[in-house]
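Fold description:
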Amino acid sequence: MEYTSTPIQEHGQLVGAVVVFWDVTRRKEAEDALQRALVEVEALKNQLEEENTCLQEEIETRHNFGEIIGTSPAVARVTQAIKTVAPTVAHVLITGESGTGKELVARAVHRLSQRRHRPLIKVNCASVPRALFESEFLGHVRGAFTGAVRDRLGRFQLADRGTLFLDEIGEIPLDLQAKLLRVLQEGEFEQVGAERTYRVNVRSITATNRDLRQDVGAGRFREDLFYRLNVCPIDVPPLRDRLGDIRPLAVHYLEQACRQFNRGPGGAAELLGVKPTTLASRIKKAGLKRPTQR
């Protein structure tokens, strides 16, 4: 309620007052609803900014090619595994040596999944400072620590209803793995400095060049986290185990280089010392598409 009181005076003496009361319930409810809407708008604004930052990082770091190249039996096994696991909701663990294309496999799984219309958020676990692990993954509220000048969404929130790609998962410190396990297992967490519990629906794709089974045996990696991640493993073979893919890879990279240096559609053929028609035939046999000249 609100009210106004107007005094009534006669010959300088107070003889009474006129008091008017208003029921402001609806106005206060409208103000509260508007305030909540403004908070939600601000949260969505922050989410869009964070997603844009993540997408820009992905654009800057993406590979020069957008498909897995090769016709060897080893590559065929990988692509078949991708086709099998992609439509499911299972967590995927990608293993293989550095440089074998684990991120390409992760992108392919996401692209063929039902979550392909939502973002694929990537985190390189090895590059996240230990002190900022929780903030990076779970987010924080303003004032949670020195330097937290505004609310920040974590990578799990950005990947909600999408896919979170955790590269170099074996580099996460042992004492922080429990926090990661809880989010993957329960789908809920608290931001740093906040009391509210958030829920997310995230599919995780993890990758490592380490032997996690050996790390589990040595006490460097939690066994329960390993089995949570290792639902659908995909092992990516090194190039030395698929020598037949060297030629199509070489042709592909040569085409890419020619395009970058404006050598024109026949640039690769000129460098190889063959006719453009011969190169086109080789590309077709390798199962590749000639890049569009820009």
About this structure: The chain has eleven helices and eleven strands.
